[in-house]
Design a protein that fits this description.
12 helices, 32% helix, 23% strand, alpha/beta, 337 residues, 8-stranded mixed sheet
Length: 337
């Protein structure tokens, strides 16, 4: 397997919404790539642009108000943004599949599990109904159902949350996609089921050699599954690093805040730390750095100018004036550990 081969590459992707003659940018010049067999996590609080980035890849940005206004999304050597809508039908669910965070709203309540898996298979593959049914049973067994035949005849409301999420994963992987986008795949699940779903995704990624974009706010999930992490804040990428580098040496104050707000097993804590304030809305972004109103290291330059995304050692990228030469001397700001 060629580890250097990019399955997908986003270049300066910008997505905006239009309301009352106002343009609101929700994804702002986002660039990253995902290599074959790699799991890339996109993390950040609600409102940071994670899910809208994934919808931009799938070209499912809500119309008519939402629109991808700039950039390229290179997949299989082609720019998806130049493909007509009809051509995207064959990409979605076939080459790129997506698992949404609430399977109850993604599965159709009036159709059985079997009908929904069969429809997906027969749309993308030249299979008869019988062949699609058999393949559906195999996929349900693969995602851990011991009574897969019976599940094929059941309706979504008859299944638990964890079972529904397994069905969604079975449907998403049924056409052996090159890229799987998982948007908060374990949010509504209890911890035991969460661990099972993460194990399942890891094993299936290894088995199919498929790449995963994992969208989450849970850094524990990231540590479990991802090799690289993109941190988003207010529509922008503020940090990108290999998983070990990010946890060992976060460079952006926002990433530092996210890591500090995680419970630590090796020390007693009366209460968890939190980042004061909230993610600004697109109609209320600060003039300078978008994190300036919540940042413990904010300087005057941060209120006036936007920092650029800089590449530091070993591919570690950060958008912060603390790391721009000539703006602040190393060591001038004492970073909290």
């Amino acid at each position: 397997m060629d580890q250097q081969q990019n399955v997908i590459e986003l270049k300066e992707v910008t997505t905006s919404f239009y309301s009352r003659k106002q343009e609101l940018t929700v994804v702002d010049r986002v660039s990253f790539n995902v290599k074959q067999g790699e799991t890339l996590a996109i993390v950040g609080e609600s409102g940071s642009g994670k899910s809208m980035t994934s919808l931009s890849i799938m070209q499912l940005v809500p119309a008519p108000n939402g629109k991808i206004t700039n950039g390229e999304i290179i997949f299989n050597g082609e720019d998806l943004l130049k493909k007509p809508e009809k051509a995207m039908y064959t990409v979605r669910g076939n080459d790129i599949s997506m698992i949404f965070q609430e399977p109850m709203t993604s599965l159709n309540p009036v159709y059985t599990v079997g009908e929904q898996i069969r429809e997906q298979l027969m749309y993308h593959q030249p299979l008869s109904k019988r062949e699609a049914h058999q393949k559906g049973i195999e996929m349900l067994e693969r995602v851990g159902f011991s009574r897969a035949k019976e599940i094929m005849g059941e309706y979504p409301h008859q299944l638990s949350g964890g079972m529904r999420q397994r069905v969604m994963i079975a449907i998403a992987l049924s056409n052996n996609p090159k890229l799987l986008i998982a948007d908060e795949p374990t949010t509504a699940l209890d911890v035991t089921v969460q661990a099972q779903i993460l194990d399942l995704m890891r094993n299936l990624s290894n088995e199919y050699d498929s790449s995963i974009i994992l969208i989450t706010h849970d850094l524990g999930v990231v540590a479990e599954l991802a090799q690289r992490v993109v941190v988003m804040y207010a529509g922008q990428v503020v940090e990108e690093a290999a998983i070990e580098d990010l946890f060992d040496k976060p460079l952006h104050p926002y990433t530092e805040g996210l890591l500090n707000s995680m419970p630590k097993l090796d020390e007693e804590q009366d209460r968890l730390q939190s980042i004061p304030g909230a993610v600004p809305t697109p109609d209320n972004f600060p003039v300078g750095c978008r994190f300036v109103t919540r940042c413990p290291y904010a300087m005057e330059v941060c209120t006036k100018e936007q920092p650029t995304l800089l590449e530091k050692e070993s591919g570690h990228k950060v958008r912060c004036f603390l790391h721009e030469e000539g703006v602040v001397n190393d060591g001038e700001h004492e970073r909290s550990s």
